[in-house]
C-alpha cells in the first residue's frame, strides 16, 4: 500500500461525487453528526450499533458484516471512501475494519469531515438510497489485529506504541478530554510502550503529515523499524489512525491494532502497568 | 433554566461535576455563535489532548485535569486563536472565544 492507493484529498472526492463505483461512508464518534449534514451521496455506518456485537464485547462476525454491507448497498468491487469527525479516528477504525474483513479497495478522505468543513465544502441532508447487494467478506485477517495475550508477550519485545495523549499515557487522565473522566479501569500504560500521540501524525486541519515527517516522528520516539509493532489507545480507534500510518502510508508489514486497548488492558488482573511519563521496564 | 442546564449551554445531566475539571465556552464571530468551529485542548507542553466541534450555539466542553491548558480554535475563514485556561476539579472554567 501507499499514500496514492489509500488516501484521497477533499478535492478528489468533490471531483468524483456521483461516480457509480465509489461509495462514500461517514463514520463518527458522534453518531448524530451524519444526520446534521454529510457529503452528497454518503451513507452512514454507526460504530456502536453497526460495527459492534450488541451482546459480547467484540466485532460483528463475518456473516453479520456481509449482511450489513449488503443492506447498505456496498459491493465487493466498490471503492469505499471513508471519512468522519475527530480527525478521522472512527473512519480510520472503519478502514481497518474493512481491511480486517478483506475489502480490496478502501480509501480515507485526508482530513476527514473537519477538512471538508474548514474548506467550506457542501454538506447535505439527503440520505441516498442504494440497492441492496450480495456482499461476500473474507475471514478476519488477524495479521492486523492484536489480542491481549500477544500484547502482554510483546512487552519489551516488540514496538508497543501508545497513541493516547501524554496525560492519558502517564495516568493523569483516564479518557480523551472530551469525555467524562470517571472510568472503571486502572490508569497508566503498558510497560515499555512508547507514547506517540496519534495527533503527531496529523496537521492541524486533520490531514496526514508527509511520509518523511512521519518516519522521523516515530524514529525519534524510539520505534525500532526492524521489529513488529502493536498500536493501542483506549478503545482502538485512535490506534487505527496510527495503524493506518504505519501499515498503509509507510508500508510497514507487521503492524497490528490492539482494539481491546486500554479499556481491556487496564482492567486485566495481574498484568504490569507503568505510571508517569517514562516508559517503564519489561 | 431547565433541569441540568448550565451556563455554557450544554447539558451536564449524568456528569458528576464534583469529580471533573470542566473547561467549556462559546465561539463567536462578531457576536454571532459559530457552529462547527474546531476547539482543541493542548496540554501544558502544547501537545494535543482532545478536540471537539462546536454545536449550533457555538458551545464546546472538555473534561480536563487540574492545571493550565491552551484552547486552540480553528474556524473556516479565520486564523487559529489560542487562549490559556486554568482547570480545577470540581469547578467549571468558562471561556469566551472570538474568531
TrEMBL record, chain A:
Note the InterPro entries from the entry: Rhodanese-like_dom, Rhodanese-like_dom_sf, Thiosulfate_sulfurtransferase, Thiosulphate_STrfase_CS
Any Pfam family matching the protein: Rhodanese
UniProt catalytic activity: thiosulfate + hydrogen cyanide = thiocyanate + sulfite + 2 H(+)
Domain annotation Rhodanese: ranges: 18-125, 160-274
Name of the protein: Sulfurtransferase
**Can you provide one Gene Ontology molecular function annotated for this UniProt record?**
thiosulfate-cyanide sulfurtransferase activity
Q: Which UniProt keywords apply?
A: Repeat, Transferase
TrEMBL record, chain B:
Q: Which GO terms of type biological process are on file?
A: carbohydrate metabolic process
Checking Gene3D superfamilies in the record gives:
Immunoglobulins (2.60.40.10)
Under Pfam families, the record lists:
DUF1416
Q: Which domain of life is it from?
A: Bacteria
UniProt name for this protein:
DUF1416 domain-containing protein
- Tell me the organism: Nocardioides islandensis
